[in-house]
Amino acid sequence: MEMLMKLAWSFRYGSDAFSSFMRLKFLTKEGSLINYYKPSSVWPGVKKALQEIDTKCQWVIGNGAKIDLWRDCWAGKHSIQKGLNLLDHALKGCTLKLESLIQGPILRCPAHITQLLHLARLSLHDVKKSTDEDYLVWWPDIKGHFSAQDGNSKKMGVTIASKCRHCGAQEESLIHLIWECVFAKEMWNWLAGKFKFRGTFTNMKEAIKLSKNSSPRVVHLWTAAVFRGMTGLWKHRNKIFFQDKAVSKAFC
Ligand SMILES: [Zn+2]
């Protein structure tokens, strides 16, 4: 469960490429969780963990850009949606972000929204405002860090460091992780060596092209190896990220 909670947290609030990808895949345009089944073995567990997180967190409002007026908790312990018992489809098309109610450091709620809050048993008195970016706090830890029991989860705050855990480079992106990172390059060099190719490619297309003069069997094997390498690097990253494992090629 611990790992699923972390995964759910990064799914909801992470700013890395994988989190964005997962959000595209599993959230509706309006930001509700999808209800139909997508073929992903982690989804049911992540969904449960997401619901758990959603009932235990509140946004501290910075510029409001990340905060959904209807679906997020920002004026107490539940969202307006929850407080008013609104089903997802009732909010179809409602995508207002708090951003539009913010003027400089101040949140200005028009009367009808204040009334809505009241009906939803929420109150502007419970709003937490900051001058930084929006971030999420884990009830009752108002200071602002995700506090699961494992004690080393500071990194799970919304400001997840986007440092590459393989090489320590500052920006972790999918492209870095899979093609540019020293760790990835070593893996590719090794793999290409097995096929007597040179590991000088910097993306999937280039990699696959290396086998263009080979026999169909080698093309097939090489293509499979490239895919396997890419997913291996991704899984390795998650092992390190979510389970605090040390970098090791054994996971790839
Ligand atoms: Zn790296």
Strand ordering within the main sheet: 4-1-5
> In sequence order, what are the helices and strands, one letter per element?
HHHEHEEHEEHHHH
Strand content: 5-15%
Mean pLDDT: 74
Rg over alpha carbons:
22 Å
Count of all domains: 2
Regions with little confidence, pLDDT below 50 for 5+ residues? 140-161
The total strand number stands at 5
Main pleated sheet: 3 strands, mixed
Structural class: mainly alpha
Number of helices: 9
Helix percentage range? 40-55%
> What shape does the CA trace take?
elongated
Bound molecules: zinc ion
Task: Give the distance, in angstroms, between the N- and C-terminal Cα atoms.
Answer: 23 Å
What does this entry look like structurally?
The two termini are 23 Å apart. The chain has 252 residues and is mainly alpha-helical. It has a 3-stranded mixed β-sheet, with no helix packed on it. A two-stranded antiparallel sheet has the order 2-3. The protein folds into 2 domains: 2-156, no CATH class; 174-251, no CATH class. It has 9 helices and 5 strands. Zinc ion binds at residues 164, 166-167, 169, 176, 181, 183. This is Reverse transcriptase zinc-binding domain-containing protein. Residues 142-188 form the Reverse transcriptase zinc-binding domain. It comes from Coptis chinensis.
